[in-house]
Write a structure and sequence with these properties.
alpha+beta; about 300 residues; six-stranded mixed β-sheet; disordered N terminus; 8 helices
């Protein structure tokens, strides 16, 4: 008797939230701790901006308050997005039906069912997409208002004119960014220098050329004068940023009712042999203090 594969017609509710957690963790920026995630936002979220100043006064009995505290909120609107695909079910049968029957032996990395395979592909694809959108989203229909466009539009962000990264100049480019970091944040525990992958590769080779003898073995943890250097896949080439991770926020509603992950076997309705998938979620990105962000680009 032929094996019968049942495709779950819909995943939603709490399970949708779990799937989004996996997908968002696949985003390089989130996975490497390059941004603060606010997971339970519906509609608009608010990033706090707190400024505090104080001055010394002669001691006296009583209580005479001094100093200034200014608290404001920066609104970040989350928007609703969707991803839709239509796939031919037959393309999955030979591989995944055979795996289900045990014909692939110990190849455990191959999902055993079509539904599992599609969910895994959806999670991986969504992670890559979200990572790019966090930084490079244009804000037009179907796109985040990405952080880089926000930085360009903000006169408070510290802009650096960079040069296309090479092994020879990468340390000089990093030093420009390092020297531009405001004194009040340069020693904070959550400050990082985020770079695009080509900058990270050049920096690794620069270290090999300048500080190591012989053939290097193994990957190297990067930092620049004690500040972690983090390679982020979603950044465009030749980008270098310095910022506090608490200053940047990725806002989403993981448990919102509008979240939906659906897989539908269309054979049940039109005999087409196709599978349709649909993802619906909300998200947005923003930051609190532009004057604490250094942005170097070519």
């Amino acid at each position: 008797m032929a094996t019968t594969t049942t495709i779950n017609s819909q995943f939603n509710g709490a399970l949708a939230g779990e799937i989004f957690v996996q997908a968002f963790k696949k985003a390089d920026t989130i996975n490497k701790g390059g941004i603060t995630v606010l997971p339970n936002v519906i509609g608009s979220g608010y990033l706090p901006k707190l400024n505090y100043s104080a001055s010394l006064a002669p001691y006296s009995c009583g209580f005479d308050a001094t100093g200034t505290v200014t608290y404001t909120d920066k609104e970040v609107a989350t928007k609703k997005y969707e991803i839709k695909h239509e796939l031919c079910k037959d393309e999955f049968h030979q591989t995944f039906q055979a795996q289900q029957a045990g014909l692939f032996g110990a190849a455990n990395e191959i999902p055993a069912t079509i539904a599992d395979a599609i969910l895994l592909a959806m999670v991986n694809n969504m992670g890559d997409l979200v990572d790019t959108q966090i930084w490079q989203g244009t804000g037009v229909t179907g796109s985040f208002a990405g952080l880089l466009a926000q930085f360009v539009a903000d006169g408070d962000v510290i802009d650096i004119v960079g040069t296309a990264s090479t092994v020879a100049n990468v340390q000089a480019e990093l030093s420009k960014v390092y020297l531009a970091i405001p004194e009040e944040v340069v020693g904070e525990s959550d400050i990082i220098i985020a770079v695009s992958p080509n900058v990270a590769r050049n920096y690794k080779l620069s270290q090999v050329n300048n500080y190591l003898v012989g053939t290097p073995v193994g990957d190297k943890t990067l930092d620049y004068i004690g500040i972690p250097v983090v390679s982020i896949a979603g950044l465009p080439s030749n980008t270098i940023l310095a910022y506090r991770t608490k200053n940047l926020g990725f806002l989403t509603g993981l448990e919102a009712d509008l979240n939906n992950v659906s897989i539908k076997d269309m054979d049940e309705s039109d005999l087409s042999g196709n599978i349709r998938t649909k993802i619906v979620f909300s998200a947005g990105v923003g930051y609190s203090f532009g004057n604490q962000i250094v942005y170097s680009r070519v």
